[in-house]
Design a protein that fits this description.
alpha+beta; Alpha-Beta Plaits; Rossmann fold; eight-stranded mixed sheet; 17 helices
């Protein structure tokens, strides 16, 4: 119990305030500067004893209560604790093994206490939250502080991410705002079932990877853009099945409602067997319409990277992942460690090239053979939000990772390129928040240029490399925002080019410093220092370019000077995009034939690890929802005739 009277307290407070004013006057400390205690307590050669963030509070609101931690040379003295109490402060925690005490007291008292010899340092008692594995290993946690006064923390705030999936459980606490309302700002059902929740369980998990907050498990499962708005576009039914026509309707709805909900990113964690060329595939054409409307479209590569015997498969990218304008995402395995030194491309992640084709008048097939995926992101055994009583967990209880009985806190395991795709979608939202002027092509360029090539994997397995959110947000912040009217070779950055290195979880790595094109790659610092024609709208990388015999001619509008062209099909040495062992020898994908390391792709043949699949592609069986969930691989004929009759056009790319 305190014995001090209100009158005495006012006297003490007045005395301390007078002391503070005298102290500030003598020290001649400008507003916002660091406080330096008097010479009697500390010489000018010693470091300041007040944390910089406390200085603003002291000078702007001296009477406001602040929570601080006072570090002392030894056990906090009784005199110090008494003076804290006399100043109107409240004693918080004392520590057995740490010489410090936490207190709450008026801000101006901090300056007085800092002059004492029995005080080493005073810092704010800032709130903490666990940094989840996903946001740590991708570098998203590091990028939070790369904001400006206009953007605030880089968390996706204000950006709309449309999740085209099996629905989103809007009541899950992973989707709450700061004031406990839901960030699922719109929901529409296009399946005909008349519901927008998530009975299957896929969409809720996907949405939380892109935009789940830190509310669950003290932030252990925070998504990439935890403050972004979610637009729930339900195109898969209660069994996780859907039709291409429903998906197209979903994309169409997003284009029509783009401005109403600031939809800047679409996430499509599903696909269908690629038969038609992207030039005629209706789902690809719908994606291209969204792209032309200024929307970034992230799509799953597919889970067809190996056959049932475990053999590596090439040429099994699903549609709409075959669309050049889409950001096609493969899956990486982080093995649950924040360090990226052990990361690999998962065995099941679909590899390129794309095998959609056209048929000429003579009946000859002409395959697209485009390099895909564009990049990879963590997608293996990720824990995120679980929709209550969903079908996936009901049929496979081992997917349940919940330890809390509250259904709105439920979490579950899932793996697949379905999970990797929303990680990239969330990253795209962060880039747009940091720099709203970025076009879809520029977002793709920034993501690829800053990606980390994984050693031992070729371009057809990982594209430009693994997602690096830290580097991407940093680079996006340097891109000029007055892009309208820019022409080829205009300066692209507002300052010098950044050092192409990121440090995540204590390990530094170089950026790819290049972009994946249709049939090869481009490198060079001018990709980011000078405006390229392909960064505008209404054009896709490779458009307006003539290809032949490994030589590329630009049309004078698309690519500027200082750009180096390479074969692109390289097994990476872990440094830059063009560095490593050349996988392709003598000819390019544009010719329809690729030779290299015992693998041959030709018009009508795919050979992987000695296994001939003449005129075959790989797809997922869709004979039952359980088969989709497991991701069982079967061979289908190159003309699209399946080995098993499918019950749906769309295939989920995660289980």
């Amino acid at each position: 119990m305190r014995w001090i009277t209100k009158q005495s307290k006012r006297m003490i407070t007045g005395y301390l305030l007078a002391s503070l004013l005298a102290f500030l006057s003598v020290a001649e400390i400008p507003f916002g500067a660091q406080l330096v205690p008097s010479a009697q307590a500390q010489t000018t050669s010693q470091p300041p004893k007040v944390a910089p963030d406390l200085v603003a509070k002291i000078t702007s609101a001296p009477n406001a209560l602040v929570s601080v931690i006072i570090k002392t040379p030894a056990t906090p003295s009784s005199n110090l604790l008494s003076d804290v109490w006399l100043s109107g402060g409240l004693i918080g925690k004392k520590y057995a093994k740490f010489s410090a005490v936490s207190v709450k007291l008026p801000a101006f008292v901090v300056a007085i206490l800092a002059t004492r010899l029995d005080v080493e340092f005073i810092s704010s008692d800032n709130p903490t939250a666990a940094s989840g594995h996903l946001e740590t290993t991708t570098g998203a946690a590091l990028s939070r502080s790369y904001g400006t006064t206009a953007t605030g923390s880089i968390d996706g705030r204000g950006i709309g991410i449309a999740i085209l999936d099996s629905g989103v459980n809007a009541d899950h606490h992973a989707f709450r705002t700061d004031n406990s309302t839901t960030r699922v700002v719109a929901s529409v059902d296009l399946t005909g079932e008349g519901r927008t929740d998530d009975p299957y369980g896929h969409g809720t998990h996907v949405a939380s990877l892109a935009a789940g907050n830190a509310h669950i498990s003290q932030g252990a499962y925070t998504g990439i853009a935890p403050a972004a708005n979610i637009i729930n576009v339900r195109v898969l039914n209660a069994q996780g099945q859907g039709k291409t026509s429903d998906a197209i309707a979903g994309i169409d709805w997003c284009i029509a409602n783009k401005d109403a909900y600031n939809i800047r990113v679409l996430n499509l964690s599903f696909g269908a067997t690629a038969v038609n060329s992207y030039q005629t595939d209706p789902l690809c054409q719908a994606v291209r319409r969204a792209f032309n409307a200024g929307i970034i479209v992230c799509v799953a590569a597919g889970n067809s990277g190996k056959d049932t015997a475990g053999n590596k498969i090439f040429g099994a990218i699903h549609t709409p992942g075959i669309e050049p304008s889409a950001i096609t995402v493969g899956a990486a395995n982080t093995f649950g460690t924040d360090s990226r030194t052990d990361d690999v491309v998962t065995t099941y992640s679909s590899r390129g090239p794309t095998r959609g084709y056209t048929v000429d008048a003579l009946g000859v097939k002409h395959f697209d053979n485009i390099i895909k995926p564009d990049l990879v992101a963590p997608g293996n055994k990720l824990i995120e939000a679980k929709a209550p009583s969903n079908n996936l967990v009901s049929t496979t209880p081992s997917l349940d990772a919940s330890t809390n009985s509250n259904p709105d806190h439920g979490v579950m395991y899932m793996s697949g390129t379905s999970m990797a795709t929303p990680v990239v979608a969330g990253a795209a939202a962060l880039l747009i928040q940091r720099n709203p002027a970025l076009t879809p092509n520029l977002v793709k360029a920034v993501l690829e240029y800053t990606a980390q090539p994984l050693a031992g994997f070729n371009t057809l397995e990982q594209g430009a490399g693994q997602l690096n959110v830290e580097g991407a947000v940093r680079l996006a912040g340097l891109v000029r925002q007055d892009l309208a009217g820019r022409v080829l070779n205009d300066p692209l950055l507002v300052g010098p080019a950044p050092t192409p290195v990121s440090t995540i979880a204590g390990v530094s790595f170089g950026w790819s410093s290049g972009l994946v094109q249709k049939y090869d790659c481009t490198t060079g610092v001018n990709l980011i220092t000078k405006f390229q024609g392909v960064y505008g709208t209404g054009i896709v990388w490779g458009d307006g370019i003539v290809w032949g015999d490994g030589i590329v001619w630009g049309d004078g509008i698309v690519w500027g000077d200082g750009i180096v062209w390479g074969d692109g099909i390289v097994t990476s040495d872990g440094t830059t995009l063009a560095s490593g062992t050349l996988l392709v020898r003598g000819v390019t994908l544009a010719n329809g034939i690729v030779w290299g390391d015992g693998i041959v792709w030709g018009d009508g043949a795919v050979v992987a690890d000695g296994r001939l699949m003449s005129d075959y592609n790989l797809a997922l069986s869709t004979s039952a929802s359980a088969t989709i969930a497991i991701g069982q691989a079967i061979l289908t004929n190159g003309d699209g005739t399946p080995g098993m009759a499918p019950t749906t056009d769309l295939l989920l790319e995660g289980w």
